[in-house]
Amino acid sequence: EAEVAQSPRYKITEKSQAVAFWCDPISGHATLYWYRQILGQGPELLVQFQDESVVDDSQLPKDRFSAERLKGVDSTLKIQPAELGDSAMYLCASSLAGDRTDTQYFGPGTRLTVL
Amino acid sequence: DAKTTQPNSMESNEEEPVHLPCNHSTISGTDYIHWYRQLPSQGPEYVIHGLTSNVNNRMASLAIAEDRKSSTLILHRATLRDAAVYYCILVGSNYKLTFGKGTLLTVNP
């Protein structure tokens, strides 16, 4: 069964450093999502792509976070500079069409610890 | 986005049925009801979704109240692998999944 791949699985960094996370969605999935999940809470959507275009980044802290999906396939989420409050699980998901009946498939996530 | 209310936690015994409730009194006519679950140290996984009629799949059943203001996810025979956080989510015209805190299901052997 096809899966969403993410790397790295774990990342420890010091505050003010730059970090980057990579996501490879299921082949053929046009919609890609990045979520952040703080311990004890549900995931929160940061950014949504339809192919290579951003369709929603209203919750993305744009002063330090950036996301791209240049060829409409894999995607990178970057944080620069990292802050202590960025410690969380970063989840990538993909879906075929992004409509209200669609199923989102999640990757295993990248656990970020900022020291 | 319309909100959902779920119990913080529930407990069940292995091989017994589990009924996980969700209230969504402000649901709109076109909102779909989705359920996802998240096993420890994993990303969420899709369980089931429905609009008005009850739905069944290999993982679970979804019972939707006639007025659509509540729904119940039914696991017919809980196993230890079903221990997870279960999220009830309304998906409307913006097509977004807005996760709450969900219900932590503990399954006792």
In short:
By secondary structure, chain A is mainly β. Chain A contains no helices and eleven strands. Chain A is globular, with a radius of gyration of 13 Å.
Task: Describe this protein's structure.
The complex is a heterodimer of chains A (115) and B (109). With 115 residues, chain A is an all-beta fold. Helix content of chain A is 0%, strand content 48%. Chain A has no helices and eleven strands. In chain A, the strands form two sheets. In chain A, strands 2, 4, 5, 6, 9, 10 and 11 form a seven-stranded mixed β-sheet that branches. The termini of chain A are far apart. Chain B has 109 residues and is mostly beta strands. Chain B is built from no helices and nine strands. In chain B, the strands form two sheets. Chain B has a five-stranded mixed β-sheet, with no helix packed on it. The termini of chain B are far apart. At the A-B interface, strand 5 and strand 10 of A face strand 4 and strand 8 of B.
Describe the SSE topology:
The complex is a heterodimer of chains A (115) and B (109).
Chain A: E1 5-7, E2 10-13, E3 19-24, E4 31-37, E5 44-50, E6 53-56, E7 65-68, E8 75-79, E9 88-95, E10 105-106, E11 110-114
Parallel strand pairs in A: 2-11
Antiparallel strand pairs in A: 1-3, 3-8, 4-5, 4-9, 5-6, 7-8, 9-10, 9-11
Chain B: E1 9-13, E2 18-23, E3 32-38, E4 45-50, E5 55-56, E6 61-64, E7 70-75, E8 84-91, E9 103-108
Parallel strand pairs in B: 1-9
Antiparallel strand pairs in B: 2-7, 3-4, 3-8, 5-6, 6-7, 8-9
Helix share, percent of chain B: under 10%
* Share of residues in strands of chain B: over 45%
List the chains of the largest interface with their residue counts. A-B, 23 and 24 residues
Outline type of chain A: globular
In quaternary terms, these chains amount to heterodimer
